């Protein structure tokens, strides 16, 4: 996590080892209570950054990133099913 010029905003960054997405949960207790939007990458090793906003200045926060792998479907080959 990196501080920004705004004391209520920080920048959370991570690199995913697989195509997928991440969301950041944060709050003043380990129950968190707040969550950012989800941001995704289509490549392995994709670097993601999300602004975590709405925090009170000079207040300690618990912060946790959640990641999930992208679900890939096989390509549609346009073949017929049945007779």
What gap, in angstroms, lies between the N and C termini? 58 Å
How large a portion of the residues is in β-strands, by DSSP E? over 45%
Report the total helices. Answer: 0
- The total of beta strands comes to 7
Structural class: mainly beta
Alpha-carbon Rg, integer:
18 Å
Low-confidence stretches: 73-83
The amount of helix comes to under 10%
Q: From N to C, what is the helix and strand string?
A: EEEEEEE
Give me the oligomer status. single chain
- Round the mean pLDDT to the nearest integer and report it: 86
Largest sheet: 4 strands, antiparallel
Q: What is the approximate shape?
A: elongated
Please render the helix and strand layout as text:
Elements lengths: L1 E2 L5 E8 L3 E8 L6 E2 L3 E3 L4 E8 L8 E8 L14
Antiparallel strand pairs: 1-2, 2-6, 3-4, 3-5, 3-7
Outline the structure in words.
With 83 residues, the protein is mostly beta strands. The protein is 0% helix and 47% strand. It has strands at residues 2-3, 9-16, 20-27, 34-35, 39-41, 46-53, 62-69. The strands form 2 sheets. Strands 3, 4, 5 and 7 form a 4-stranded antiparallel beta sheet that branches. The model is unreliable at 73-83 (pLDDT under 50).
